[in-house]
TrEMBL record, chain A:
Organism: Rhodobacter calidifons
Main location: membrane
Similarity comment text for this entry: Belongs to the binding-protein-dependent transport system permease family. CysTW subfamily.
Residue stretches making up the ABC transmembrane type-1 domain: 85-291
Protein name stated in the entry: ABC transporter permease
SUPFAM superfamilies with a match to the protein in the record: MetI-like
Automatic annotation (TrEMBL), chain B:
Source organism of this protein record: Rhodobacter calidifons
Record's protein name: Spermidine/putrescine transport system permease protein PotC
Record bears the keyword Lipoprotein: no
Main location: membrane
Lineage of producing organism: Bacteria, Pseudomonadati, Pseudomonadota, Alphaproteobacteria, Rhodobacterales
Domain ABC transmembrane type-1: 67-260
Family: Belongs to the binding-protein-dependent transport system permease family. CysTW subfamily.
InterPro entries with a match to the protein in the record: Bact_Polyamine_Transport, MetI-like, MetI-like_sf
Annotated transmembrane regions: 12-37, 71-91, 112-133, 139-158, 187-208, 243-262
Membrane topology term: Multi-pass membrane protein
Entry keyword set: Cell inner membrane, Cell membrane, Membrane, Transmembrane, Transmembrane helix, Transport
Keyword Membrane: yes
Localization of this protein: Cell inner membrane; Cell membrane
Protein role: Required for the activity of the bacterial periplasmic transport system of putrescine and spermidine.
From TrEMBL, chain C:
Functional note: Part of the ABC transporter complex PotABCD involved in spermidine/putrescine import. Responsible for energy coupling to the transport system.
Domain of life of the source: Bacteria
Family listed: Belongs to the ABC transporter superfamily. Spermidine/putrescine importer (TC 3.A.1.11.1) family.
The gene coding this protein: potA
Protein name, entry field: Spermidine/putrescine import ATP-binding protein PotA
PROSITE patterns cross-referenced by the UniProt entry: ABC_TRANSPORTER_1, ABC_TRANSPORTER_2
Molecular function in Gene Ontology: ATP binding
Catalytic activity: ATP + H2O + polyamine-[polyamine-binding protein]Side 1 = ADP + phosphate + polyamineSide 2 + [polyamine-binding protein]Side 1
Key words of the record: ATP-binding, Cell membrane, Membrane, Nucleotide-binding, Translocase, Transport
């Protein structure tokens, strides 16, 4: 490489950094940087009046799993915490499964419309996607609550004699999360199905496969990258959900997000809240890492 | 529709499920909008058309304050994040890969990956320390937080536009005696404008919709529209909240439609 | 010929190397290229894709910098000068017309950047519009134009600032055949009218042969031969040039003084060939003459392919070597030959050219 070429390359890299720098500074101050403080706080001692005492302690981390019994002077499994964890994971997995069951036919339907219609159907999926999560949660709440439109209609039809009590149950949270995260499943599924070569179906049917076998043996394996992408996109925000369980779970059916809030806003135990935040972050990052791995493997294998 | 013979791409039950999904997706939103025009005090029984919930919302000083606050934060965050994202997009596209470029991508997209509640907690602690140290309690914290999480949303459409832009146009400008700055002013910027507008709109919508981070970062009396609504939801539901939601929904739909028209591929 | 203005060198590339990539993946797009391009000539860089012709053009324009070597413009070193400070303009393969500007604004862009007074900008833009016959389109957006019209705008835009050299990067490749023929004539007219040096890049040998004063045939990052169209066609320097420009037959054998002896034992006269070692000669198909089996090299007719004006006759020599003869089709359409027939082959005077491998 000639000196002039090297100089031009160096200048290009330097300019790249300089142009990106203002955005990086803001992100470091108001997004990434503060995450480190959370890690730091998770190793401090809790102050009973809220906040922390600057003294090293692993109590925050330990109390995620174990609770200290003053009367018996020993640690026991923190059942309440584990229950919230279990509920978060279970609800997130079920939400992912439900959005897939509803989202796959929807994505298939959009992808098999004539090309001129597809943009419109896709736009119809995108509007709820960008609509305020709070408004959507609020809207589904209006439908399922005791005096909501669902109960009113069913009572009027005489199907039920007294209102179904759905809100403030796990079912309500599940319905709510499925409702708000459905577009996140449909969009990546659509993107993969749209590239699916429909002639493969002709080949499968030609080789005596039934519709069900074709779905199982041809379609699903090929659109697997889209299924994984959609599942991660639904699972990750579900696990960290805050607004939906707060409104539909009504403080009783808490998920990790609400439990973290409880540790901070009610000033109960900051190190525990910080440890929970870091743990949530680790789980989410692990899920994303799996996704990146799978996506890269599929790409290098010549799919997608 | 009468279908004859074997439809190759049809899978049994899929169309029904899809139509059901669309109905379920829109039913709650449409219900919410309709009942915001309800004359009666119910969100389930129709009592005739009326705009009085909008009147009530407008007469409510808290709603007015929250609206102004939402707009101030939204406009500031959108202008700032779009400016920063434009510079970053210019710095990360269309040049030979350089050391640290991946780090820049990860930093910029980080708000999309970290659960909102974690960022919210982190900012609450960090800004809490600064609030104590400096005594400043203003909207600056919310604007900074919103700017940060809006950056990836502004960055993506601008970057997409830059990457689809014909590199030879700028080469042609340089060939026709334009200095690098003239090339940027006369060629790059005008061609990039739709992407920048799209980024600005998207980040405005994102800022306007944020609940979690605002809820954790705001000081006392700094409610935005969403956090005001969240507060109201703890009490009885009133169609007033429906009215506010409908207005927010309207703004979102208008901006999204504009966004799609701007980013639509020509020809 | 004495030293006249017409012989003055405008662009001179000296020992230019351009390498892309790093480490073991380095590709030499240009490998020690030296060439002088004279003022006012229509000079063509011809070669298959990947031969380095576009890279050389981009180095002259200043879009890229050479890894080694220098580029001179009128004797001044411009190797590292940025493109906006070189009096050189380019017609891009994709045209690269500014989509947000009108036809007239596209044409006046360069003049404005040079800071010319408004009156001059206006006058020159009008003159350019007239030159490419697009006066009626001045206010249109470029996306509303046909491919041929866009091509003219690109030409007018690049010519407007009156550059010393005009670079054309496969400008006709996007046009259909009929339009391409028209534009070839148009380009030649513009070059004669403006007197500007044109450096034209193409992979199309016909385009190169019909338009150029001189052609540089390139392959694998090197210039294989520079010369006029006739020069290169009649006296190809090596196998690559002979086969890339037109079609040809290669015959291989042992060099004897003034002749070559084939594997069949037959001899062909090659005036001036020194004795010793192996040698290859090239003969164009239209220079192959057929006669009675007793007359010349012994051969058998394998296949006859009818092309309208011509008929191609594929022949096999005694050792199986294939030779193609291009014969004019007689009025009846019958060549008077049948497959399997034994014939004799002779070559026209001066048609047998020795080529390097």
């Amino acid at each position: 490489m000639s000196p002039a070429e090297e100089q031009a390359l160096r200048a290009s890299a330097r300019n790249g950094w300089l142009l990106s720098l203002p955005a990086l500074v803001v992100l470091a101050l108001a997004a990434s940087g503060p995450l480190l403080i959370v890690v730091y706080y998770s190793f401090l001692t809790a102050n009973d009046t809220g906040g922390v005492i600057r003294q090293f302690s692993i109590e925050g981390w330990r109390s995620i799993f174990l609770s200290y019994d003053i009367f018996e002077d020993r640690y026991t499994l923190a059942d309440a915490h584990l229950k919230i964890f279990w509920r978060s994971v279970w609800l997130s997995l079920t939400t992912t499964a439900l959005t897939f069951v509803i989202g796959f036919p929807t994505a298939w339907f959009i992808a098999t419309r004539p090309p001129s219609q597809r943009a419109l159907w896709l736009f119809l999926i995108t509007i709820p996607f960008w609509t305020n999560l709070l408004i959507r949660t609020f809207a589904i709440n209006e439908v399922i609550r005791n005096e909501g439109i669902l109960n009113t209609t069913l009572l009027w039809l005489g199907v039920i004699s007294e209102p179904l009590r759905i809100v403030y149950t796990e079912t309500a949270v599940l319905i709510g999360m499925t409702y708000v995260y459905l577009p996140l499943m449909v969009l990546p599924l659509y993107a993969t199905i749209e590239r699916f070569d429909m002639r493969l179906l002709e080949a499968a049917y030609d080789l005596y496969a039934s519709r069900w076998t074709t779905l199982r043996r041809v379609i699903l394996p090929i659109v697997k990258p889209g299924i994984i992408a959609g599942s991660i996109l639904v699972f990750v925000p579900s696990l960290g959900a805050y607004v939906t369980p707060r409104i539909l779970g009504g403080g009783k059916k808490m998920m990790i997000g609400n439990f973290i809030e409880l540790q901070f806003l009610q000033g109960r135990n900051w190190p525990l809240g910080a440890a929970l935040s870091v743990l949530l972050l680790i789980i989410v990052m692990a899920a994303l890492l799996v996704y990146v791995r799978v996506a890269n493997r599929d790409r290098s294998a010549g799919h997608g | 529709m009468a279908e004859r013979g074997f439809q190759i791409s049809r899978l049994p039950g899929f169309a029904t499920m899809a139509v059901a999904a669309f109905v379920l997706l829109y039913l709650p939103i449409v219900t919410l909008v309709i009942f915001s025009f309800n004359a009666s005090n119910s969100v389930a029984v129709w009592g005739g058309f009326s705009l009085h919930w909008y009147g009530d919302a407008w007469a409510n000083q808290a709603v007015k304050d929250a609206t102004v606050r939402s707009l101030v934060i939204g406009v500031s965050a959108s202008v700032l994040s779009t400016t920063l994202a434009t510079l970053a997009a210019l710095g990360t596209t269309r040049r030979r890969a350089y050391r640290g470029q991946t780090l820049i991508y990860v930093m910029i997209n980080q708000p999309l990956m970290v659960p909102e509640v974690v960022t919210a907690v982190a900012l609450m602690i960090f800004f809490g320390i600064i609030k104590v140290a400096t005594g400043y309690q203003g909207l600056g914290y919310l604007i900074a937080a919103h700017t940060a999480f809006c950056i990836p949303f502004a960055y993506l459409p601008i970057r997409a536009r830059l990457e689809s832009m014909d590199l030879s146009l700028e080469t042609a400008a340089a060939d026709l005696y334009a200095t690098p700055w003239q090339t940027f002013r006369r060629v790059t910027l005008p061609l990039l404008a739709p992407g920048i507008m799209a980024g600005a709109m998207l980040s405005f919508v994102i800022s306007l919709d944020d609940v979690v981070i605002t809820e954790f970062v705001k000081s006392g009396g700094q409610d935005t529209l969403p956090t005001y609504m969240l507060g109201q939801l703890r009490r009885a539901f009133t169609p007033e909240v429906n009215a506010i939601s409908t207005m927010l929904l309207g703004v979102t739909v208008v901006l999204l439609t504009a966004f799609f028209l701007l980013t639509r591929k020509r020809d | 010929m004495g030293v006249s203005l017409a012989d003055a060198v405008t662009i001179s590339a000296r020992n230019v190397v351009k390498a892309f990539g790093q480490g073991s993946g380095v590709v030499r797009a240009l490998d020690d290229v030296s060439v002088d391009i004279r003022q006012g000539e229509f000079f063509t860089l011809l070669g298959p894709s990947g031969c380095g012709k576009t890279t050389l053009l981009r180095l002259i324009a200043g879009f890229e910098m050479p890894t080694e070597g220098t580029i001179l413009l009128d004797g001044t070193d411009i190797t590292t000068l940025p493109p906006n400070r070189r009096p050189v303009n380019t017609v891009f393969q994709s045209y690269a017309l500014f989509p947000h500007l009108t036809v007239a604004q596209n044409i006046s862009f360069g003049l404005e950047m040079l800071g010319k007074p408004a009156s001059e900008v206006k006058a020159r833009t009008a003159a350019m519009l007239a030159l490419v016959k697009l006066e009626a389109m001045a206010g249109r957006k470029t996306s509303q134009l046909s491919g041929g019209q866009q091509q003219r705008v690109a030409l007018a835009r690049a010519l407007a600032p009156q550059p010393k050299v005009l670079l054309l990067d496969e400008p006709l490749s996007a046009l259909d055949l009929k339009l391409r023929k028209e534009m070839q004539i148009e380009l030649k007219r513009l070059q004669l009218e403006t007197g500007i040096t044109f450096i034209f890049v193409t992979h199309d040998q016909e385009e190169a042969l019909t338009m150029s004063d001189r052609i540089a045939v390139m392959s694998a990052g090197k210039i294989q031969q520079v010369g006029s169209a006739k020069d290169i066609y009649i006296h190809p320097k090596n196998r690559f040039v002979a086969s890339f420009i037109g079609e040809t037959n290669f015959l291989h054998g042992t060099a004897e003084a003034g002749a070559i002896r084939l594997a069949t034992g037959e001899r062909i006269d090659v005036p001036g060939l020194p004795a010793g070692g192996e040698a290859t000669v090239s003969v164009r198909p239209e220079q192959v003459r057929l006669g009675l089996p007793s007359d010349g090299l012994k051969a058998t007719v394998r296949t006859l392919v009818y092309f309208g004006t011509d008929t191609h006759c594929h022949l096999a020599l005694a050792d199986g070597t294939e030779v193609v003869a291009r014969l004019q089709s007689p009025a009846s359409g019958e060549a008077g030959l049948v497959e399997g027939q034994a014939v004799g082959i002779r070559f026209a005077d001066g048609a047998v050219q020795r080529v390097e491998d």
